[in-house]
């Protein structure tokens, strides 16, 4: 049988690594804020220590294997001298790893405690994050604003995320800004992040939490401070009126079918559900259900078949409604600004 040369395998490595190229700001190796940069420095330090160990071990291994391999005539010399135990070597290969671990541990522990510090409340935006299967609720307790799956922040300012879960353990990770941290039911965890530049930073749930764990996405949208203030002002005065007769019919259907789980503030509904994403200002969101572009077709698809698009979530299919009724609901959602 013809053997393939190892070079053939080496050639596939760049191809596999090409899959790691960052799109949509999703690389921890390209940090966009101070927390991400600090964490990247730790990644570099631990990688350097690991590379050092791998290189030293590989060099010794190659040296020993070539220097002491069996050569013709060795069998006549008999068994080589047998040595058991060497205090010098034992001490050496205990002390070296201890030194390496101390070099790794000191910056890791000090950084961990530094990132845990609570920032000055006057200089901080507070956001309460609640994880649900499979979406994110973001509440700004000081600003009286609530969003879902998209969290807006100002640049150059620390943002304190106070996190908990409504069901199972989730984890919050925005690769280019920092993380990750678990959201535990019945407990609060705190993560402070900051973005240096305006932009959209993709976030992910990174704790296996059920069938649609891989679809539990969110976005951090960073604005210049003045733009952020404008966004807050617009969210504090949402427009929830239906503008056309079709949208008014949609509003009636939303009241019958959606309110109870969802809320639309300022629309005059008797109930404001909290177990599903708040729909206030729905047309201003960039995505539907955190996974698809927010457009008419995707909203309709979502209403018809939420289980097919995000298996295991708690939204029932609205296939009992006619096409006309679905269109009316979509029209009303488009009016929510
Ligand atoms: Cu939530 Cu994985």
From TrEMBL:
Q: Which cofactor does it need?
A: Cu cation
InterPro entries assigned: CcO_II, CcO_II-like_C, Copper_CuA, Cupredoxin, CuRO_CcO_Caa3_II, Cyt_c-like_dom, Cyt_c-like_dom_sf, Cyt_c_oxidase_su2
Concerning SUPFAM superfamilies, the annotation shows: Cupredoxins, Cytochrome c, Cytochrome c oxidase subunit II-like, transmembrane region
Q: Name one GO molecular function term.
A: oxidoreductase activity
Going by the UniProt record, its keywords in alphabetical order are: Copper, Electron transport, Heme, Iron, Membrane, Metal-binding, Respiratory chain, Translocase, Transmembrane, Transmembrane helix, Transport
Query: What EC number(s) would the UniProt record show?
Result: 7.1.1.9
Cell location: Cell membrane; Membrane
**Membrane topology listed for this record:** Multi-pass membrane protein
Domain Cytochrome c, first and last residues per copy:
245-337
The note on cofactor binding and number reads: Binds a copper A center.
- Taxonomically, the superkingdom here is Bacteria
Any idea where the Cytochrome oxidase subunit II copper A binding domain is? 122-234
Iron as a keyword of this entry, yes or no, is yes
Supply the name of the protein. Answer: Cytochrome c oxidase subunit 2
The lineage, from the top, is: Bacteria, Bacillati, Bacillota, Bacilli, Bacillales
């Amino acid at each position: 049988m013809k053997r393939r040369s190892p070079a053939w395998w080496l050639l596939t490595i760049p191809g596999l690594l090409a899959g790691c190229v960052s799109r949509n700001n999703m690389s921890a190796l390209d940090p966009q804020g101070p927390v991400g940069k600090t964490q990247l420095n730790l990644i570099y330090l631990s990688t350097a220590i690991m590379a050092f160990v791998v290189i030293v071990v590989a060099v010794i291994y190659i040296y020993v294997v070539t220097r002491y391999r069996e050569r013709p005539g060795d069998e006549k010399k008999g068994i080589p001298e047998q040595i058991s135990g060497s205090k010098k070597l034992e001490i050496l290969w205990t002390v070296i790893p201890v030194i390496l671990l101390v070099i790794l541990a000191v910056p890791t522990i000090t950084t961990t405690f530094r990132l845990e510090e609570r920032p000055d409340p006057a200089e901080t935006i507070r956001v309460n994050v609640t994880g649900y299967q499979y979406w994110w609720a973001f509440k700004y307790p000081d600003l009286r604003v609530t969003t879902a799956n998209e969290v807006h922040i100002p640049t150059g300012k620390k943002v304190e995320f106070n996190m908990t879960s409504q069901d199972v353990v989730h984890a919050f990770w925005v690769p280019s800004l920092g993380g990750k941290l678990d959201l535990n039911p019945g407990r609060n965890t705190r993560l402070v992040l900051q973005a240096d530049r305006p932009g959209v930073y993709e976030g992910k749930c990174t704790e296996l939490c059920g069938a649609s764990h891989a679809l539990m996405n969110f976005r951090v949208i960073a604005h210049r401070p003045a733009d952020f203030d404008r966004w807050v002002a617009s969210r504090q005065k949402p427009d929830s009126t239906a503008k056309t007769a079709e949208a008014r019919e949609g509003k009636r259907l939303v009241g019958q079918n959606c309110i109870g789980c969802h809320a639309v503030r300022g629309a005059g509904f008797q109930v404001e559900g909290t177990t599903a994403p708040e729909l206030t200002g729905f047309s201003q969101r960039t995505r539907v259900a955190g996974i698809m572009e927010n457009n008419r077709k995707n909203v309709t698809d979502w209403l018809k078949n939420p289980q097919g698009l995000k298996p295991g979530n708690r939204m029932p299919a609205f296939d009992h409604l006619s096409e006309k009724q679905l269109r009316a609901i979509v029209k009303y959602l488009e009016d929510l600004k």
